[in-house]
Structures are given as C-alpha cells and as structure tokens.
Amino acid sequence: MPIDYHIDHARRLVVTKGRGVFSDDDVFSYQRQVWSQPEVAGYDELVDMTAVEHIALPSTKRIPELAELAANMDTSNQSSKMAIVAPQDVAFGLGRMFEVYRNLHASSTKKVQVCRTMREACAFLGVKGESPDNVES
C-alpha cells in the first residue's frame, strides 16, 4: 500500500504519507485499517500527499462514499481535526471535494482542511513542524 502512517499516542496524532500511485482502494483500506482501532478515536490526522505522483481514481463518485465511511467511523463525543497537505492541483481539488463532503456529513466529528503546505496544515492542527517527520506539539 503506498500509504505509510505512524500513530503518535503522546500527541494524539496520526501522521500519514502517501507516495507513488494512489488509488481509491488504498485510501479505503487505510481508512478501515487505521480508524477501526479504538485507541485512535478522537485523534487528529495529518495526511501528506506531497510524494503522490499520480491519483488513480476511476470516479469522483467514490469521494462521497469515502467521506461517509470516515464520518461513520468517528466517535460521537470527541471532535478532532484532519489536515491534508496537497501541493499538486489534482490532489488539492480532490481533497477539497472530500473536505466538503466530510465537513457536511451529519455524523462527522472531524473538521477537515486541505492545505497547500505543511506549515498551513500544522497551524490548523495546532502542532509545530514543517514536515511529518518533525511535527511537534
């Protein structure tokens, strides 16, 4: 899977990096694998799409489906944030579509924001750092 992630329990943050060719199956697998773990409930999420070279998305119709899956996996009593770093235009546009669907979903307790830079994403999440490797709280 071209998605690597690290769960930082001390900071209640999941740091995720995409690389290479990114498919919708990869994203759905990541969502189910990581966010089905009860210990990450209410954690913030930082997704770095900088190293993604191509997004193999057969249809944008899967974006609302992913947003619904993600929202339904939220805990009902803990709000959190998700920042997506997407410097490329295609990743940014698809990320914004996900942001809209996710933020409008009735079950969602996670506020999503798509950013062009790591600095913007870290500011939104309230963490220090300019790369997922050195993000600090």
Give a brief outline of the structure:
The chain has four helices and five strands; from the N terminus they run ββαβαβαβα. It is α/β, with parallel strands linked by helices and about 140 residues long. The radius of gyration is 14 Å and the shape is globular.
Write up this protein:
The chain starts with a strand and ends in a 12-residue tail after the last helix. It has helices at about 25-35, 60-70, 90-105, 120-125, and strands at about 5-10, 15-25, 45-55, 80-85, 110-115. Strand 1 (about 5-10) and strand 2 (about 15-25) form a beta hairpin. The protein has about 140 residues and is α/β, with parallel strands linked by helices. It has a 5-stranded mixed sheet, sandwiched between helices. It has a single domain (about 5-125), classed as Transcription Regulator spoIIAA, CATH 3.30.750.24. It is built from 4 helices and 5 strands. Helix 1 (about 25-35) runs parallel beside helix 2 and helix 2 (about 60-70) crosses helix 3. About 30% of the residues are buried.
